[in-house]
Design brief:
Strand order of the largest sheet: 3-2-1-4-5-6
Distance between the termini: 45 Å
Number of domains: 1
CATH superfamily: HUPs
Largest sheet: 6 strands, parallel
Number of helices: 9
Structural class: alpha/beta
Number of strands: 6
């Protein structure tokens, strides 16, 4: 079994997330993409994050009944801090016969040395699926000197440049700008019903 691990705060989950996850599943031939909702990411401690229950409901609505997507509660079900290394090791215990690919953007690859025990994290993953972005290939060559063997594990994904970010969406909603078509219809309705991201 081949599983992709797609982690994030998903605050909110938008169409860009869905497109990237489906492209990764198709190109890397995953049996499933596991969506890992991070309750309180260590690198965003100063950032205001929407309460977990709302993000969990939005993510469930976003992935809906797509058979190739599955919500994992591996980080929700344990206390923080939530490091990617621990998440991968727990998923290896949960799926002992699976090959695990951790999905990340080119910016995350560039910042990998700032992660918790980056060499151990890379060793724990079978592969790293990296969304190709400007500078990503340069980053991997630099990292090989710090984390020998990472070159063999990285697989670059050809994904479209989607100009949507959760932070920009939150700002659009706060400022009263249109945002309907950046989201699935159920997520859009929930945001309106619960008045999320309002001042």
């Amino acid at each position: 079994m081949r599983l992709g691990i797609f982690g994030g705060t998903f605050d909110p989950p938008h169409l860009g997330h869905l497109v990237l996850a489906m492209e990764a599943r198709s190109q890397l031939e995953f049996d499933k993409v596991l969506w890992v909702l991070t309750p309180f990411p260590p690198h965003k401690q100063e950032q205001e994050i929407t309460r977990l229950a709302d993000r969990l409901d939005m993510l469930n609505l976003a992935i809906g009944d797509e058979p190739n997507f599955e919500l994992s509660e591996v980080e929700i079900s344990r206390p923080g801090p939530h490091y990617a290394l621990d998440t991968v090791n727990l998923l290896k215990e949960e799926f002992p016969d699976a090959k695990l690919t951790y999905l990340m953007g080119g910016d995350s690859l560039r910042d990998l040395l700032t992660w918790h025990r980056p060499a151990d994290f890379v060793a724990a993953c079978d592969w790293l699926g990296v969304m190709k972005r400007p500078g990503a290939r340069a980053a991997i060559n630099t990292l090989e000197g710090e984390i020998p063997g990472i070159l063999e594990k990285v697989m670059f994904l050809e994904t479209p440049e989607i100009g949507i970010s959760s932070s920009e969406l939150r700002q659009r909603i706060r400022q009263g700008h249109p945002y309907r078509y950046y989201l699935t219809e159920p997520v859009y309705r929930l945001i309106r019903e619960r008045h999320l991201y309002q001042e």
